[in-house]
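Key result, reporting period 2: structure in, sequence out.
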């Protein structure tokens, strides 16, 4: 099994963190992992994306032009990466800020209202964990307990008190992802 993922959105949406947590989760499951971030110099507010590969086999190259899954969090990323999903692949997106929703018919499209749900939960910073939960429901390649371990590994210890909130956000995402 090899899963090649692109996560793309604005800096500040937790794109790189989501990728890092996925990568750590794969490591916790004893899989081969590649995590390759890309972002502009402005970071917050500029575009950011990360490629994550999780595999049972050695990964020959972290550079990809086509993906099994695209997680899209803004219109610029939709315009750039919608057509990079392999036929038969998955595109998961948050409709907040998306003017032109995906139109492909050769992939499975899922929607998760992560921004709206995070606001309802009272903390917009958990947006990325809601989206991650949606992904985990659609593609259960990492286990929740390994994602929690990944959170502990990637978050500074002073933020470990927020792990239960992040776990609730993941669960919220798992319950609220819908096929488009």
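The corresponding designed sequence is given below.
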């Amino acid at each position: 099994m090899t899963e090649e993922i692109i996560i793309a959105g604005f800096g500040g949406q937790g794109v790189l963190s989501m990728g890092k947590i996925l990568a750590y989760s794969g490591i916790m499951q004893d899989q081969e992992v590649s995590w390759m971030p890309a972002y502009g110099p402005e970071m917050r507010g500029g575009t950011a994306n990360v490629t994550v590969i999780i595999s049972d086999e050695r990964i020959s190259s972290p550079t990809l032009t086509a993906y099994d899954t695209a997680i899209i969090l803004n219109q610029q990323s939709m315009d750039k990466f919608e057509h990079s999903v392999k036929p038969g692949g998955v595109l998961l997106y948050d409709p907040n800020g998306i003017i032109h929703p995906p139109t492909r018919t050769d992939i499975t499209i899922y929607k998760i209202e992560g921004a709206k749900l995070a606001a309802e939960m009272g903390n917009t910073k958990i947006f990325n964990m809601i989206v991650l939960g949606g992904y985990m429901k659609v593609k259960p390649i990492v286990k929740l307990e390994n994602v929690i371990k990944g959170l502990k590994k990637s978050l500074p210890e002073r933020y470990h008190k927020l792990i239960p909130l992040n776990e609730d956000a993941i669960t919220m995402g798992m319950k609220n992802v819908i096929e488009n």
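The chain has one domain: 2-179. The longest strand covers residues 2-10. This case is discussed further under Risks and Mitigation.
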